[in-house]
Amino acid sequence: MSSVAVAGPAKDALDALSPAQVDFIKRLSKAELHAHLNGSIPLHVLRSLALEYSEKVPESNNTSVSSSAIESGIQALQAGVNLDTIHSFFDLFPAIYALTSTPETVARTARAVLEDFLDGPEPQCAYLELRSTPRAVASSGMTRLAYVETVLDEVERYPPERAALIVSLDRRMSDADAEECVAVAKKLKAEGRRVVGVDLCGSPLAGDMAMFKKHFETAREAGLGITLHIAETPDNTREDTLELLSFKPNRLGHATFLDDETIHAVVQADTCIELCLSSNILCKTVTSLDAHHIRHYLKHDHRIAICTDDALPFRTNLVAEYALLLAPRPLGLGLSELEVARIAEMGMGGRFEA
Ligand code: 6MZ
Question: Does the keyword Hydrolase apply (predicted)?
């Protein structure tokens, strides 16, 4: 079971449930389809990496992230995010990345995240599709290929019905970097490794989406599933959303600010929507659970998957996200056990094929 100390809206919902209801959620067969590796590292693992880092990197070494910047980053994560807007969320990652910049630390963190979701007497979920952005780090000699191979070595310690990997492309990437990430995903899939899809993530207003289209086409032709963060903020333009929909995604992340026409297109295409309730509330892209777009999809019995996004900063886990469905209003959505079981089933149905 998760080592994250749950806080915020997810904790309030969990606390509103009876032990039998929490048990019901734990026993459901659930899939976690939208979890970012570097946003899901258990705090105690990050702390021990920070300690090792501070012993290696003297405060005067101004080519690296300073130990004090890392310490304040970890303290912010421990406190749980309290953002004015989603845009400041991405400032959390340089401190984390400084700690996961070698194949050895990537392996350790990937293993810890997989264990957190999948191991122990009460695993959070039956199946985890972990996602991560391949990083090349000059100082450690780690290439993007080595990064993905390292994460895959950990993923493949589990059987295929329990874990797989999605390779993320960041909206800030150059054409050449995006091409390299897709080439790595394609090559490893062809070698029989467990890469099942590609994702587009990162700061929601960055980049020119038209540039990415050909890379997602290459990925689709290679048999990889496609999931895209889309319309995550009110400032995402309609052109941006239409461009992304033209990539013919199998799944979409967040899809918070679709208009009537684009919602219609998504429903027609039967595209599964990955929904991250705590993430959206804490990033203030939705004002309350009551106002969350999940209501629209439930009304239309449209395919959704309930996910954590970044368990560490959002202080949540998958059981707590399901508690937000079951808890009585206003702490939760007040759904019945039957409805929650159906949502879990939809999540399992959204898995990419290996
Ligand atoms: C968009 C997000 C995200 O890939 O290094 N990431 N991108 N929206 C979000 N919702 C709040 N949460 C995380 O994991 C960290 C990276 O995932 C993306 C960001 O690009 C972040 O740098 P990996 O393992």
Answer: yes
